[in-house]
């Protein structure tokens, strides 16, 4: 395995554990999650020019 590939895998693993730690936060209510979904969809479509 090349050094750059190993570095990328390590970064992905770090990000995975950070997201996992955040996702266990029970303070996120349904309204907040819905807003994140809407914002993501809007911004994704905007980037794609739709």
Question: Topology of this protein?
Answer:
Elements: H1 3-23, H2 30-48
Describe what this molecule looks like in 3D.
- By secondary structure, the protein is mostly helical.
- The protein has one domain (3-48).
- It has two helices and no strands.
- It has helices spanning 3-23, 30-48.
- It starts with a helix and ends with a helix.
- 0% of the residues are buried.
Whole-number count of domains: 1
Number of helical runs? Answer: 2
The geometry reads as flat
Radius of gyration (CA) equals 16 Å
Features:
2 helices, 50 residues, flat, mainly alpha
Quick recap:
The chain has helices at residues 3-23, 30-48. By secondary structure, the chain is an all-alpha fold. The chain has one domain.
């Amino acid at each position: 395995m090349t050094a750059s590939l190993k570095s990328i895998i390590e970064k992905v693993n770090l990000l995975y554990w950070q997201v996992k730690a955040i996702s266990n936060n029970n303070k996120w209510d349904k309204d907040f999650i819905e807003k994140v979904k809407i914002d993501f969809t809007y911004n994704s479509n905007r980037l794609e020019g739709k």
